[in-house]
Each structure stands twice: as structure tokens, then as C-alpha cells.
Amino acid sequence: MIETDHVAADFGTALSHYRAGRLGPAETACRALLAREPAHRDAVNLLAVLCCRAGRLADGAALARRALAIAPDDLQALELLGDALDALKDHAGAADAFLHAAAQKGCRRFHLKAGASLHHAGRFEEAVEQYRAVLASGEATATDITEYGLVLTALARTETAVAAFQAALKVAPREARTWAYLAEQLALLGRTDEAISAWDVVLALRPGDAGAHYDRARQLHLAGRDEAALGGVDRALLLDPAAERAHGLRSAVLWQLGRFEEAAEAASRALALAPGSPTALTNLGNALKDLGRLDEALTAQQRALSRSATAEQRTTVLVNLGLAHQARGEAAAALAALEQAATLSPDQPWPQFNLALARLRGGDLDLGWLGYGWRWRGSGLAKRLAALGRPVWDGRPLDGRLMLVAEQGVGDEIMFAGLVPALFAAGLDVVIECDRRLAPLFARSFPGVTTVARDELPEAPEGVAAACPIGDLPGLLRPDGRPGPWLAPGHLAADRGHRDALRRRYHDGRPLVGLAWRTSNVRSGRQRSIALDRLWSLIDLPVRLVCLQYGDADALAAEAAAAGVDLVVDREIDQRRDLDAFAAQVAAMDAVLTIDNSTAHLAAALGRPTVVMLPVDADWRWFAGRSDSPWYPTVRLIRQPHPDDWDAVIAQAIEMLTSLPGLAGPAEKPEHVSHAVP
Q1: What is the pLDDT of residue 507?
Q2: Which positions ≥6 away from 279 have C-beta within 8 Å?
Q3: Residues 185, 162: Cα–Cα separation, whole Å
Q4: Domain of 624?
Q5: Structural domain count, the chain
Q6: Rounded distance, CA 415 to CA 602, Å?
Q7: Could you give the percent of the chain with pLDDT greater than 90?
Q8: CB distance 591 to 405 below 8 Å
Q9: CB 368 within 8 A of CB 356
Q10: Are 96 and 123 in contact (CB under 8 A)?
Q11: Distance between CA atoms of 184 and 193, rounded to whole angstroms?
Q12: Least confident segment among 34-43, 226-235, 528-537
């Protein structure tokens, strides 16, 4: 179109009004011009701008399309259309407009806008290409590189995203937002210490950022550093006392620390801020369960389930609901809830592992052992196996040595080590890794097997062909197919000389019965432990009671005296420091009466007659409804008939002890005092 002087003057008037900020007159002039010259592209573009400035985005987009009908490659109209559509949340349409513009003129601005719109539209691969074009231009800013990293996070290209954020921080090292993105991605990679350090930088730059304090505390919690996490979440709450999620995190942290009353209080505060929150309700249920308030706990979990909207929420709550049923002794309901959780999240270790434990507890060994391997997915054990650089053993014959990798606690190591003789009998050359305190005991008990302390081997020893978490042995060897006990009877051997010397020291003519009544496990200790003063009726037995409880000797002697229990406390035995000496002490007993703790496993593994007192919610290792143990032939189990009903258990334990060979019959009893052996 040939523009006349009159048309040019009219457009100039409209443009002058626009540049002077007189938007109304500018629009009036544009519309007057377009009424006479409807194909005046510049006037259409200017009117599109004016409509967008006035908030009439749909009108602006329509005018931009009108301009493009006149000139399909008009960069101004393409950019106007893209901006308007982005503002209207039509990111796919905006992306197409910006891509068209970038194809005409590959400048940084068009590539950036195309990349951002593609990102918002979920077209991540195309977005990556646009950001790479920006990077290739040599004009990329720190913000551009950060945005590129965000697209990579959407594609779960975590390593590459970390590299992008690190590159952005080289350009702008004080950009707190980028440090936060970096922290999140490092956490996903399991680089926990680096992630926490990145959060430290965020807080150095923005010390008053309550959200950053929360995120750092959450990372500490996930890393198992709950004392530090508690300090962090408390700082977040000082800055933002009404942050419901921070109260929820505080509840989870306190629960992990075994501070159940405070955990329930924090969950209640979260609920006051967000009534019906499934996270707060399930946290409250967990705390109430471990406080023994089982009816309230179940109600809280049921309410949480009814409010859960996402699969992730439902999975978490279903697991906690299953555990609440389990604590009440409702095995079928517990199994049903856990099966639902595992079905809902088939790739998540936590529900699968809890389901496996429930199946094992109920005697479903086929599926139970199959699922037990979920315990080490994504855990420190998985990292340990990866660091060894050996394949995980699948039970087949090996051309080389087999390394058993230590895991879980001392009691677990003792129990699973009972399958080592079966490996040795099958001709396998075995290296067994164990807690340093168990090394002398294992070395004596398993001649021909190489025993090493778990903190001494950063790499696999020479000749190792495969590694196996020691807890995998039952599933691989399937001892349930054998008659009799699963483990070699009395598979541990204490130092005989030390055992005999201790027996002579303690012996006063009465049978020796070792006693342990408490565990320090922060989450299950309340359910499994018995107050010593509830065991006062043991003093009427014709036996001499020897303390097998860990703890400070003076405190234990004082506790026994206050409870009126005649108890020998040997100051020379410290099981926390020297398990080999403790094994000799346990082996010196005629029988052992204990709660479920590592002492139960050690006594049983030494072949001592052992009575284990169990809560309603007994650990899976003791299975359900049994008074014997397939692991250990010398163990007898006594179970609570109802939660916290230890009196019935103790009465049955006394009856069972008196029926053991060598413990029945009268014996002269000295005055009831607590003895501290020097």
C-alpha cells in the first residue's frame, strides 16, 4: 500500500499521543485511521499495543492476528501476539508465535520468550532447544542460564540442571533464588551435605527468609539430622508463626526424635491453621499411636485418609493407617491398608517395605521375603553396595568370595549371621562385615570366615565376586523350607574362660537369670520397655537376677533398689563398649528374661534358654501368634493380650521360668538387696 501524506500524518498523530502517554486519544486516532485504511499494518499493531496496555488482552491478540494476516512475518505483530497469549495463559499459542519470530530473526529475546512459553506449555524438549540457542549466542545472562536449568529440572535431567545452576552462579554468585534451585536438585541426587551447604548460602543472603529456613530444615529431616532440623524449623516459625507446613514439619521431626507429646502438640497447631489437613492429621495419628492413645490415633488416620486428595497423600496415610491398625493388634485391617498403599505407589520403597514386614509378621514368607529387599532401595545401604563395586548376589554359585554387608542394628546382625554356617557348608568363601564391637565374637564363632569391622572397608576386599546385604540371606536361602530352627542352634560362641569366670563370680547356689527390661529405641521404646518396678514379683523366684540392661551402672543399681528388685549389676561389663565381654556375661546365665532388644538375639544366638516379653505390636521377627521362634530353638515368647498389659506377661514369664530345667524348686534366698559387683 502506498501511504499518502494524509494517512502518514494521521498515524503520526496517533503515535505522538501514545509516546506522550495519552493512550485514550492514541486509540481514538488509530481507530479513526483504520476506519479509512483497514489494512494499515502499523496502525493495527499500535492499536493492539494500546488494547494490551488497557488490559484488553483478547482484543490485543485479535488485532495482532489481523496484522499478521496483512504481513505474516511481521516481527512486531508476532511478539505482540505471543505476549498477549502468554498473559492469557495460552502458552502453546504464545510459543508458536515466538518460534515464528525466532525463525525470522534468531535474536536472544525471541529465543528466550519462546523458551519460557514452551516451558509453561509443557513442551520441555523444545524449550531446551531455545535456551541452548540463547547459550550459543554468547549473550546469555545468569537469569537465562537459571531458566534453562529449570527446564532441565522439569525433564528430570538432574545432573545437567545442577551444572546449569552452578554455571549461573559463577556469573551471579549472590543470586539466592539460584542457590535454592541448586539445593533442591542436589538433594534429589542424594548429595545431602552439598544441598544443605547450598541452603546455608541462601540463608546467608536472605536470613529472614522463612521459606528457606523451612526448606533447609526439611532437608536435614530427610537426611536423618533431626536435632539440627528442629532448630531450623523453629527459626522458620519465629519468622512466620502461621506457617502450617512448618508446624507440620516440626511435628514430624519431634516424632522422629521420640518426643511424642510435643509432636502431637505441633500437629494440633498445624490443624488449627489448616483444619482437615491430611498431613497434619496423619502426623497427629502417628504421635498418638506412640503415646498409646490407639483409638484416637486410628480416628486421626481415618480422617486423614478421607481428606487425602493426591496419590502421594493417600499412600502416606494408608501406610500410617496400617501401622495404627497393627498397633491395635488388627492384623487383617493393617494388611489391607498396606496392600492399598503398595498398589497405589508400586515404585515407592516405603509402602512396599512395610507391606513386606506385615506379610512376614503374618507368616506369608513367599511374598514377605520377596518384598523385604525394598528396605535398601534408595538408602544408605544402597550407596554402600554401589561403593563396593560388586554385583549383588542372587543366590547362585560364585567364582570368588561373597561379602556379607552389615546393615540395621546389632540385633539384626546377630540374627542374620545365624545363616553364615549354611553358606560355609555350601562351600562359599565368605567375608562378613559387622559392627566393630561384634568382630571378636564373630571371628570366634565362624572359623574359616573372614570377619571385618564395618567401618574398616571402604572397598571390597580382594577376591570378592559379589556382595549381599546380610538381611537378604533368609530370602535367598529360604530357611523356612527346613524342619526345625532356621538358624544354626547356638551359632555364636562366647569366650569360655571369661564366661566361666563370670559365672563363678555371680554364683551363690541359685540359678542365674539375666534380666533386661528397656530399649532406647526412640519410636518403639515405649511399647517394648517395661518399668523395672513392675517386675518386683521376680524377687520371689528361687534365682539370682543379673542385670543385662545397658546403661550407667550406678543409675541401674539405684533403679533396681528403688524398684525393690534384687539385682546384680556388674560394673566391669559395658555392653555398649565391649559386646564380646557382654556375650560372655550372657553365656554365663542359666536363662535370660528380656524384652525385645539386642539382648534377646544375643542370648538366643548363644543358645541360652531365653524368654522374650513382647508387646501387642511385636516386631515382625517374632511373627504373629507364636510362642516359639523359628529362628532360635531356645526362645519362648510371651505376648501382651492387650496393649500395655505387662502384668499378664510377667505372670506368665514367671511361670515359664520356673518350668525351665534347673530353675524349678526351692532355694535359699538371701536378703533382697541390689548388688553392684566391682
Answers
A1: 92
A2: 245, 248, 270, 304, 313, 316
A3: 6
A4: 496-677
A5: 3
A6: 8
A7: 73
A8: no
A9: yes
A10: no
A11: 12
A12: 34-43
